[in-house]
Amino acid sequence: MFLMVNLLILLPSLRFFIKFSIYHLFFIYLVLANISMYYLLKNIKKYYNIFNYPFWIIFIGGLSILNFYIYPIIDARRNIGKGSTGDDAMILASKSLMSTGKLYDLMIDAKTPISPGPAWVIFNAPFSIFDLYFLLSPFYLLIILLVIRKFFGNLKTNLFTYYLFCSVIAFELFFNGHDMLPFSLAFTSLSILINKVLTEKTNISISIILGLLLGICSTSRIVFFFIPLIFFILLKPYNYKNAIVLFVVSFLICLFFNIYYFLINDFYQPIHLLFKGKHLLSDYGFLLGITGFCLFNYFLFKKLITTNVNWYFIIAITFSIVTIPFSIGDLIHQNFNFTEWEGANYLVITIPHFIIYFIDKLNIKKRPSRLGRSF
């Protein structure tokens, strides 16, 4: 379990230390992070009431205020050819939506198309339109903390937050405006809700609402078109009716938005990710990756899925089959230049699910707390 934590949560943070030429501090960070996580788990029962309701207000409010000041500073680094283009993609697509309605009339630059897909951009457009983009990450952090607190309790909410921000790359994406962290938090929140709500009893109206939101998330990148199918496979053993409704609604949302904006744009920019993936992995690697992904899902559908399988682990593994090869391929393509390793961002997609899997396995009873004392 600690090996998993180090490989998927701590190792991607290496990019940050190399980027700012403080790579010698990475080993200190690695040691301190492991010691603190080990200590926390060994003394876990002491922390039922730590980080209660007032702390969460201060914590999220403080991060929002920090982001108000830090995000513009980081964003300004693009003027000297540095910084992330993830926020530019969301903001330019929102501006294009307001001016022409086509979403993809503008490009970041001649070599950098916009990657985020249509429904995801439209859903989050208010953050860009009203100059509140610095609140994008805090908003989705608040959502997932509310969801985890509801279904896992206060202590595991604390553990999730601690593990998430032990990863420096999560902090980096939080403050540089990249949409990959908000997507990951939103997607994990939906995963928890679908698992906890739709597996219990048939509820068509909730299935439709969650299907709409899942469809929006599945358009965030064109390569995530498989998300509705994965959740159908997972939910089917629990509740077939909910699984059908969730799949149909989410798949139609994903299909409609992608096809509509593909037809009205001269160049549907999100599609460049398919060619980028082929370029990073080569023809044989790309074909091998697709084959492996299909075989895993066939095995999942035919043999593995029962009501006893760990939901979050399966989703994390499914996405890892897609993200890890592309992440490594990007690092190889950059000749192991960690400062240009954009593929590290892909690993953030699976981090929240692996953390949920980790804390879900801990045998801790949820201690009820008095109103006003816990988040």
TrEMBL record:
<keyword id="KW-0812">Transmembrane</keyword>
<feature type="transmembrane region" description="Helical">
    <location>
        <begin position="160"/>
        <end position="177"/>
    </location>
</feature>
<feature type="transmembrane region" description="Helical">
    <location>
        <begin position="313"/>
        <end position="332"/>
    </location>
</feature>
<feature type="transmembrane region" description="Helical">
    <location>
        <begin position="344"/>
        <end position="364"/>
    </location>
</feature>
<feature type="transmembrane region" description="Helical">
    <location>
        <begin position="127"/>
        <end position="148"/>
    </location>
</feature>
<keyword id="KW-0472">Membrane</keyword>
<feature type="transmembrane region" description="Helical">
    <location>
        <begin position="204"/>
        <end position="235"/>
    </location>
</feature>
<keyword id="KW-1133">Transmembrane helix</keyword>
<feature type="transmembrane region" description="Helical">
    <location>
        <begin position="20"/>
        <end position="41"/>
    </location>
</feature>
<protein>
    <recommendedName>
        <fullName>Glycosyltransferase RgtA/B/C/D-like domain-containing protein</fullName>
    </recommendedName>
</protein>
<feature type="transmembrane region" description="Helical">
    <location>
        <begin position="284"/>
        <end position="301"/>
    </location>
</feature>
<feature type="transmembrane region" description="Helical">
    <location>
        <begin position="242"/>
        <end position="264"/>
    </location>
</feature>
<feature type="transmembrane region" description="Helical">
    <location>
        <begin position="53"/>
        <end position="74"/>
    </location>
</feature>
